[in-house]
């Protein structure tokens, strides 16, 4: 295993120990590294760039690739901390919901969301004493051929809390505000199976529609390029000959039916 990856993973483990105030174990298994502890409810699996396939385990896991560990180190720490030891919990009823502009939402997502920032069409935020602590980004409405003419399906494209915060009931409040404005027939979203193999969205009424297959990436210079077929892969290999293949765990498609 590449010594630089082991060093990076060791630093990550030490940073998590500092942030979580727990003792963690780091060890190699089947070509990747595992961080675990009796005090954590989930296992953290770290994959070097030359390990494209995910571990197939029935235990709750967080799957993190080397390229993300390199580019999103501190954000990964903050997200794991927010899942296990929130620095600050806020009740949504103590926040104010408001529409926010594209610039504000994109800046928030860049700072607090692991995936690429997307503007969407409709953007809502929760504010505590004037501070933006959570955002939800929605698509425009789509007509459904098997539904009545006024039925519209929207997508929840992005949702995140400010790093280190847990806004209890935050997503429900944001969705309620969106529904008041646009009366959607349903809201669809995708949850990342690299971070959770069973979605907590079911607690607020979303139902599982289907499991989406893993996405294939060609990782070059810590940038991810999605490919869908052999032709696209060949083009990426030609353009970035020193890259490596990678895939995630896929996602869960979920729908909140409102009509």
TrEMBL record:
This is N-acetyltransferase domain-containing protein. It comes from Sphingobacterium zeae.
